[in-house]
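Here is a tokenized protein:
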Amino acid sequence: MLEEIGVDNIGDLFKTVPGKYLLDKELNLPSPLSELELMKHMKELNEKNASAADFNFFLGGGVYNHFIPSVMKYIVSRPEFYTSYTPYQPEVSQGTLQAMFEFQTLMCGLLGMDASNASLYDGASAAAESVLMALRINKQDRIAVSSTIHPDYRRVIRTYCDNGNTEIVDIPFDERGMTDLEKLKEALQKGLSCAVLQSPNFFGIVEDLREYEKLIHESNALLIVAFSEPIAFGLLRPPGDFEADICCGEGQSLGILPGFGGPHLGILTAKEAYVRNIPGRIVGRTRDEDGRDAYVLTLTAREQHIRREKARSNVCTNQGLCALMATVYLEGLGKSGIKKLAHINHKRAEYAKGKLREIGWIDLRFSSPTFNEFVLKLKHKPEEVLEKLLDRKIVAGLSLGRFYDDLKDSLLVSFTEMNTKEDIDNFTACLNELY
């Protein structure tokens, strides 16, 4: 091969790499192992890892520990789904396309919106794509982003809009832990393309979208509502009920493992009027010449299909698999199931809220209504508390000081159906014993 490409040795292939970055010695690798020896070695390594099953998790902040039914693995592991590619040839991809169509239908039903694409990478990229979509629709290079939105979403929005032309106005949160209404009014007076809010927000607080929707639409701006816990809409009114123009967020809670941060599922839905500005792909249902249901890629803004400079492709095949997981999960739960699950999550969090308030050095940071997570104000350093509880096999929450300078004494805790009453009692008992 070296002879064929015209070089004398392997080293010639790396001439463009500065010498200080090249390894000048042989790699220190062990001798080869047989398959049996390798399996034994891998088992020994695995036993050194901490198992998630040995810990109690009260960590949320955008990724949630939910139960995943056994039916999930059975269906999504089928080779026709697990190995399927983006369906460029609809006549041979009917199963994949139907699954995507079902996903879109479920997302519209869950969020109260008119149209959905067939998934994006994650909640952060979905939020950023929603902003780009609003900029295309409204033609104003000024947006407002609430500080109660997940910090990662806000960072990705800034990255996507970092072209020097878009002005981003940060709207602080008020004493309720909600988007500051007066600051939003000030921003709207100068004209906005869109305002991006989140409910339940990053603090777990249910924001009153009615307060904001009227102001935003009276100013001819678009309302984008983000979310990071879709299970909440089994209990709460969906964003579509509040006239959201675009609704976006993270679908990891819908049957997808936390997975050290991914792969996850980006959800983007919108009013029908804006369907041609939705990025990614949209699957439609029609009839074939024999009158049977047939599924097609109705809209798909990929480089292969339209002029490259107009393409808005940021989807990959694996996101189709994550969308399938969400579809199977929601179909398995049904309307009554997701409603019941949401009630369980809310009840567990409210029970924990009452128990935690009994501890002398802990208080609630905000008094606003929450879904399944909320913010604690501590008299001791959150990082210190987290470290001590980790020794007791408890992953206690997320320190907010890394995101907000004025919340360095605050801890975000989350509760799902995976946290039993006994788990919560043990959690509060351990906190009581710390100081």
Summary: Residues 70-332 form a domain with the Aspartate Aminotransferase; domain 2 fold (CATH 3.40.640.10).
